[in-house]
Write a structure and sequence with these properties.
With 957 residues, the chain is an alpha+beta fold. Helix content is 35%, strand content 20%. Strands 28, 29, 30, 31, 33, 34, 36, 41, 42 and 43 form a 10-stranded mixed beta sheet that branches. The chain has an 8-stranded mixed beta sheet with strand order 1-2-4-3-5-10-6-8, with helices on both faces.
Length: 957
Amino acid sequence: MSNLRLIFVFLALVLVTQFTNATVLMKPTPLTGLEYPDILSGAYQENITTPETFLGFKLGERTASPEQINALVNLWAKESDKVQIVEYARSYENRALHYLMISTPNNLSRLPDIKANIAQLSEPAKLSASKIKQLIEDTPATAWMAYSIHGNENSGADGALALIYHLIASKNNDVNELLANMVVLVDPMMNPDGRARFTKRLEESRGTAPNIDDNSLLHSGTWPFGRTNHYYFDLNRDFYFAVNPESRGRIKAINQWFPQLMIDGHEMGPQDTYLFGPPREPLNVHIPASTRKWSKVFSLDHAEKFDENNWPYYTGEWFENLYPGYSNYAEYKGSMHILYEQASTDEDGIKLASGKIRTFKEAVDHQFTSSMANLTTLSKHSKAMYQDFVQFRKGHVATKGQYSNRSFVVLPTGNHYRTQRFLDLLDIQGFEYQQTTKSFTVSKAKNQLGQNLTKVTVPKGSIVINNRQYDAPLLATLLEFDTEIKDQVLIEERQKTLRNGSSVMYDTTAWNITMMYGLEALEVNENITKNLTNYQAPTPQFTERENTIAYLVDGATDSSVAFAARLLEQGVKVRVLDKEGKFNQQGFARGSVVVYHYDNTMDKSKLKTLVKQTANETNSSLVAINQGLGDGDLPDIGGESFKLLTAPKVGLISQNGINFYDLGSIWHLLDTELGIRHSHLNQEFLANTDLRAYNVLVLPSRFYGELPKHVVKQIGQWVTNGGTLIVSGSSANQLLATEKFTQVKLLKDSFKESEEYNLALFQEWLAKQSTISNAKQVAANKVSNDIWYPWQDIKALKPMDEKALKQWNNWNQRFMPSGAITATRTDQKHWLTYGVPEQLPVLTSNLPLLMSKGGSDAVVRFGQYVSNSKAEASQIGWSTIPAANDVYLRMSGLLWPEAAQRITNAAYLTREAKGKGQIILFAGEPNFRGASKGTARLLLNAIVYGPGLGTQPFINL
């Protein structure tokens, strides 16, 4: 080694020594109150690796990372004969999700028989009483113990490690007896991607001294936090939408077991204590009475354990069970569900308002002790719970039971892609369904507007889901149009709303799947059994022809948009048909995607291969045509109805303040539905970003804050130059308040011009009429002095003045829903509504209500007109309902009549030109939880078709 290198090594050692000494010298001031005994005590088997040995710290001293948890549970599965491990899913970031089956070696050796016993008990109608008794005696208890579905609620997963080790390694006789009577299924970490984000932030935020201030970065976290998965989905709202792989795998696994007990370990605010069941009202009416009975039994034992330790706790209060998308969905199948909510306590501990310090180790201990207490209760009552389970399931298929005479009918649609997605969801939940072989009539039915109909025709090809099946409660909950809410709940909700604007509802009050998916359906008051066959999913077809001039994918199906987007990204020239067409005797819906040989210079065989490949990738049926002349007056292939598209270059605005749920659902849509490239743009750097690289900007809804004014100005200029700006939810508020940015206004800012907005409504309504109001005068030679004008009705109704409208708006605004499904009417002449029905269900909450007239298009408006010859013209707030019409709004969920009045006739979706570009505003979040497929189609259209249909040529870099 040269002298020079020796000198460098010496200097490096000096620096390292000095730094190390400095670090050692900077000792933190000691804190009292951080002492807490070890969570695990007693005698344990020496051949099972201890958590401390593997992790390098005792349970509860630090947070175990996803990698550590997965490695440790796999190690234990190899070391112990009391555990078997199953990988049930992979996350988007390719992390494994496991559940562990823990019991005695004898029970584990007969797991197939145990699962078979449970399967028989879940379908008990044909079993004899003696067979049921025998099965119950031979079947151990089952419990599904699940933790940390929110990745930053960390104590649950660490508590799961304590539970697993205690069950497999303890020498305690009570533990061994427990396992002899039970199979414990532990899902230790339900959201590994979110936990990875959270533990990385913990690592980055650690200091030399314990930080017990819950305002500090260590405890508060940073956007987008670790709560959600890779695409920022809240997995605890995904148990029946099943959008994400974590949920889909978990649901399938749980449904194989019908566990008697299911717990879900969460966290809540740091200054809180500990919550467990039973919940308070509102409770979903389809949750079985037996579950409510057992919930009280479990809570008594649970409370006793906490009292022994002098730990504070509570039940109910804010915790209700109306929405079925949580982990408690298993209750509808017969499980006993218990929620744990531990006050958030990250590694260093939290100083409480009382001055006491709660350590992370104590928080983990709460989760562990709760788990053991609940398992002990289950062991005592398992046989009685099995008996209730059997009676519960029997009642669902009884000929005179609660669910005996009701069927749900999903009417045929050209949107085969979406229908298949709907049926995939039914398959995941284990529901049975069939398809009609011919049309027939039912005596009574109810449609999604709540209208009771008589002698209704059920068309051939309809999907029929009879409610009389073993999973009837969950099926009814997900498919019935309206969920019952008790009068006492409504009274309390009304009182809270009036008193201080609070609510007893924890989540959305509407979730009907057919409405969320934008599929037309009926509720029929009979158990339909005739004219049915097993459903056969249509497979995508390729219809070939000689001398092909173009390829088409029908615009009725959602997959057509992805087909267009992927081809555009590969440089193929693509057109879209803006009205219905017919070629080679085959009809095509408006919005159909056309790849025309004349547009493309690519070799014909190469283009054919590329088009077929893209059709296969997007599950689209592809039709080749060799006739460009449309039938009759229908479009011809060289006419103006074939609009040339422009490839979208998408920028998705992201980072602090943005609603990461909305952002994630849009990101997920771009990746999974379209599969096209796009860029996430940090809103804090937009001022230094050359936006000419993009022709589409998507601005999701916001949690807090606003864009800087100079950035709004910059975006406005970008739009003027030819960009398509798509804005959702609360982000519209800032732009609507910015002078001269948009012509659209918020409802509260429109009252000076209320008559003009009302007149615009009449103009839209008249434009859809098939009769002429002044028909008699059209052929007259004499100038008529008797012409009807829309404002005549307005004057006759004496509309409210500006002051009265403001008062009306302020009063009604306090009653806006937390989540109800409302009916909207769509402009069927507008390109944004390709593949969208005239009546579209929209999930509505306290969203900005958009007012449109003149230069802006109201593409989707709230309220559906229904003809009623006896109805006189009427006034609702600022708007007039034309004579001979009723307006329907509420489809599902809690919607106070005051809110219904305020929402009616406002716009959900607007589009306006701005210079060479356009602004598209969504009042809500169009891809809510990845499940609102009806409104998501509007967003897909906006992203993919906007640059070609709504703007003038855009100059790109």
